[in-house]
Amino acid sequence: MTERVEGHGGELALAALRAHGVREMFTLSGGHVFPLYDAAHRTGFPIYDVRHEQSAVFAAEAVAKLQRRPGLAVLTAGPGVTNGVSGLTSAFFNASPVLVLGGRAPQFRWGSGSLQEMDHLPLVAPVTKHAETVFSADDVPRAVTAALTAALTPHRGPAFLDFPLEAVFSVGDADLPAVTPPAPIEADPDEVAKAAALIAGASRPVIIAGSDVYAGDAVEALRAAAESLQVPVFTNGMGRGALPPEHPLAFAKARRVALKGADVVVVVGTPLDFRLAFGDFGDARVVHVVDAPSQRAGHVEPAASPAGDLRLILTAFAGHPGDRADHADWIAQLRTAEDAAKARDAEEMAAETDPIRPARVYGELRKVLAPDAITIGDGGDFVSYAGKYLEPAQPGSWLDPGPYGCLGTGMGYAMGARVSHPDRQICVLMGDGAAGFSLMDVESLARQRLPVVIVVGNNGIWGLEKHPMRAMYGYDVAADLQPGLRYDKVVEALGGAGETVEKAADLGPALARAFDAGVPYLVNVLTDPSDAYPRSSNLA
Ligand SMILES: Cc1ncc(C[n+]2csc(CCOP(=O)(O)OP(=O)(O)O)c2C)c(N)n1
Ligand SMILES: [Mg+2]
After folding, report:
1. What's the CATH code, domain 4-175?
2. How many Cβ atoms sit within 10 Å of the Cβ of residue 81?
């Protein structure tokens, strides 16, 4: 039965949003979107506001990533929307179902030079799955439903609507469209069987599982497939923690050995991009499992590439009816490499150096992080180390910016994470450079009583740029920041608290205070600027 709704454009939008399970909005004030606030305010729909629109979109993205439901940002016309474009683009790269609702200058005098008059669609269309201007209030529920359906349909991604002033302020009525979850895409069964046979028959197979495994609620199916076919599993993005670290098939450190030795590499739910050597694993054959045909890589010729609902595909892998080659020696070989790397890491994480090296920060952090803690990385080298030394114990508890690599996600992701999980530890790992993009939003967190812990790896430089530039040119420019800057004092001034740590022995107590503080708390760790994360390609 369809429900009839009436009211102004804001009320009509909210009715459709609620029907899809949207439970809050992130925004920065602007008159063009007042009706959306009015509808929210009068019905107790939570509004969280920020100091820069990028944080609103990143917060919405964190909700979408963590909770696997749509996240909503409401941005005012013109500059509000343009400030949100990097967030939208990140959501597009990450396949996050984010909806941005934008204000828009009035249609009836379009072209006369109204305040903030610009056509947003050409800007956002390339980075959204659905972008539309909604010209009448009556049309709002249909448009919201269409946008959210597009966002939630694999391959997922952001959607954008804008409302001309007179459309959102005027009153209309409409039927609330029924909410129908997207039907699972069924992969070609022959392709699935071919892939399963390749993996089962391989001598040295490896699985690399990425964000879409979590987004597609296929974590259990991944585990079943890995166990049934006895394949070691590596993860990236939101896939991290998909197998608990103590699982006999869970690997993290032996990746290089695994990819060098593998004869079949199975990449599930993540693109064959720069993070995975563009899908070039030497002589190994590649199986690319994707959640929609659009995600098949055009630059690689995989041996098989089933495209469809990941849960169904992985479940079919688990039920592969044929024989399985014995992988015990291969798994044991990787376990040896994994254990050796872990022992090296443990030494680095305990090292007593002056100045502190990033590894030690993570060594201390591991002692205080709960298994369900949510860790967020925003920065260069400091975050690469976080990826190396932190082992998420649960899927959906690690937020990195994804392949778009946009600095500035920190406080927005933190806000979305805190709103999603009021009772879990939220810890942002930030470079001092990255801090400059979003630290002002500590004010938003403090004012709205959203405590989080921020650990800054303060090396006084844009490390991930300075070191490579020196290596390339023998000098560097535009890569220095003020050494020893008191980012903790900034947070204090904004309503939080914090402290600076210079000695490794002081890290543990400082982190303990941070997680007990009940306000945004920044631990400003002065780290060794000469320390550079070892990487083969340094362009970022
Ligand atoms: C919005 C944006 N601007 C610039 C870059 C390029 N970039 C990548 S890493 C990096 C340095 C980050 O420095 P910092 O946050 O201090 O971390 P560090 O490498 O020093 O640990 C820069 C500038 C980017 N990825 N995103
Ligand atoms: Mg730095």
Report:
1. 3.40.50.970
2. 28
Distance CA 426, CA 428 (A): 7
Residues near 298 by beta carbon (within 8 Å), at least 6 away in sequence: none
Nearest CA owner, ligand 1 atom 9: 380
Q: Do 215 and 156 form a contact (C-beta atoms < 8 A)? A: yes
- Report the DSSP pairing between strands 3-8 and 171-176: antiparallel
- pLDDT tens digit sequence for 450-473: 999 999 999 999 999 999 999 999
Helical residues (DSSP H) of 134-210, grouped into ranges: 140-152, 165-169, 189-201
Q: What was the pLDDT predicted at 1?
A: 62
The whole-angstrom separation of Cα 272 and Cα 277 is: 7
Which residue's C-alpha comes closest to atom 11 of ligand 1? 462
List the residue whose alpha carbon is closest to atom 4 of ligand 1.
407
At 312-330, the pLDDT tens digits run 999 999 999 999 999 999 9
Q: Ligand 1 pocket: which of 464, 480, 524 to mutate (most atoms <8 Å of CB)?
A: 464
CATH class of 351-526: alpha beta
CATH of 189-333, one of 3.40.50.1220, 3.40.50.300, 3.40.50.1380, 1.10.569.10: 3.40.50.1220
Query: 130 - beta bridge partners?
Result: 159
Helix (H) or strand (E) segment spanning residue 64: helix 53-67
Atom of ligand 1 nearest to the CA of 405: 25
Gap from CA of 380 to ligand 2 centroid (Å):
7
Cβ of 540 closer than 6 Å to ligand 1, yes or no, is yes
DSSP 38-61: HHHHHHT--EEE-SSHHHHHHHHH
Residue 538 has pLDDT above 70, yes or no: no
The helix or strand, by DSSP H or E, that contains position 344, with its residue range, turns out to be: helix 328-350
Domains 189-333 and 351-526 share a fold: yes
Q: How far is the CA of 379 from the centre of ligand 2 (A)?
A: 7
Q: Is the CB of 10 under 6 A from ligand 1?
A: no
Domain ranges of the chain: 4-175, 189-333, 351-526
Angle CA 490–496–497, to nearest 5: 80
Strand pairing class (521-526; 497-501): parallel
Instruction: Tell me which DSSP letter residue 431 carries.
Output: E
